[in-house]
Amino acid sequence: MIAAFILLATFVTAFISGVFGMAGGLILMGALALVLPVASAMVVHGVIQSVSNGWRAILHLKWIDWRVLGIYLAGSAAAAGLLVFASFELSKPWLFIILGLVPAVIWLPKHILHLDASRPHHAVVCGFVVTGLNVVAGVSGPLLDVFFADTRSDRRSIVATKAATQVVSHGVKIAYYILPAIGAAGLPSAHWLLVAAPLAILGTTAGARFLALMSDVQFRQWTKWIVSAIGAIYVLRGVLLLTGSGS
């Protein structure tokens, strides 16, 4: 039942990510946290999202902004280097709460937080904080979106470049949690990937076709409201777990 649940979540969330370039990962992380230990959920999420984002980047390869990606990698490498000296793992209640609070950054007024990934120094900061948050909370899509919200790119370039950056961030996350996940004995057999990977690719491909039918305005509006609704649900779930009402 757990394997079937993970596979279904893989396809559905890959489709959502294929459309919006985010949101799917946020949903998938919450779904995995329901049925797996935190470290195992992080690794499984990282593997599935690496396949999904990697395939999405391939589908939109010609739209990737390689300059932004290269600068992002510098910040991501700095975060990875810093994480070598840190060791922590969130409890499930706090994992849900932090997952739920991440989308709040997209509502901050521009005069408070005005970021643009096309600016070199912003791209470096993006790589550092997005990779760090991805390791702490498992997802960083909403924060990543803040850096791309005001770039002068259309939806395809945004989705393609974000997908490429997320492959890197998820790779760092897998490396960070793989040993604790193995020690927790909650990591699914590697055989599930033989089924999960094609489902992630299929869902991403279907989402990419749906994306082509949307306008840039629709893309931005739906993204903002969907991740906010998901965030509210996660915060509520975390609070219930802390109070013992969500067990």
The class by helix and strand makeup works out as mainly alpha
Shape: globular
What separation lies between the terminal Cα atoms? 19 Å
Q: In the residues, how many domains can be counted? A: 1
Descriptive account of the structure:
The chain has helices spanning 2-20, 24-35, 38-59, 66-83, 92-101, 120-137, 141-148, 155-184, 192-211, 216-243. The protein has 247 residues and is an all-alpha fold. The chain has one domain. The longest helix is centred in the last third of the chain and has 30 residues, at 155-184. The protein is globular, with a radius of gyration of 17 Å.
Short description:
With 247 residues, this protein is mainly alpha-helical. The chain has helices at residues 2-20, 24-35, 38-59, 66-83, 92-101, 120-137, 141-148, 155-184, 192-211, 216-243. The longest helix has 30 residues, at 155-184.
Which features characterize this protein?
mainly alpha, 75% helix, single chain, 247 residues
Give a topology summary:
Elements: H1 2-20, H2 24-35, H3 38-59, H4 66-83, H5 92-101, H6 120-137, H7 141-148, H8 155-184, H9 192-211, H10 216-243
Helix pairs in contact: 1-2, 1-3, 1-9, 2-3, 2-5, 3-8, 3-9, 4-6, 4-8, 5-10, 6-7, 6-8
